[in-house]
Design a protein that fits this description.
Blueprint lengths: L2 H36 L4 H25 L9 H35 L1 H7 L11 E5 L2 E8 L5 E6 L18 H4 L7 E8 L2 E6 L1
Antiparallel strand pairs: 1-2, 2-3, 3-5, 4-5
Helix pairs in contact: 1-2, 1-3, 2-3
Amino acid sequence: MSDGRQGATLAATLRPRLRFCIAWVLGGAAALFVANAISGEGMRLVVPAFVALWPAFLLEGVVQAWRWRSAGIPALLLVFLPVVSLPFAAFAVDHSLYWSHVAPSWLMLRSDRGAFDAALTGGKMPTGITGVFRVPPRTAFRTIIGFDGKWAAIVHDPTDRMAAARGWNGGPVAPDIRRSFPNSHTIWCQRLDSRWFHCQFG
């Protein structure tokens, strides 16, 4: 078989596999985003499902590599596709989980901004808020509290210092904002609008 013919065969063989890898990564990231944004309980279903499906993905690559070995395609090439997609999957999953935490707070603030502004001066608590913590000049409107004591909030910070809390994946958080609210420490924040932030606390 000529190099040109072999290259064409290889390209035709890999094209659907590459599409499958891309669909796997993007589809999985989207599923994790939805599950985590709607309810953390959804992750108990989605994560085990993907853990169970990944070996099947690898096995399918092994089977196809064995079938196409007679065409001169390196036997391990198809097996490596799911493996080399892991770093890209990790990147996609990390960003999906990050924004799945932020998106509900952004939607809540956007849909009821007037109520949040009024609550800053003693008005009625906005719908969906489970508690308010005021440590002037900051105010935290708690949205979620986890079974492990961690909690999330929509935070108003007129000083804009909460923007420096970039602690997702264990990054450093400056001492002056680490203890913004009593009995908790700031883990990370993401700006929602102007002086409003989504923040995670431990």
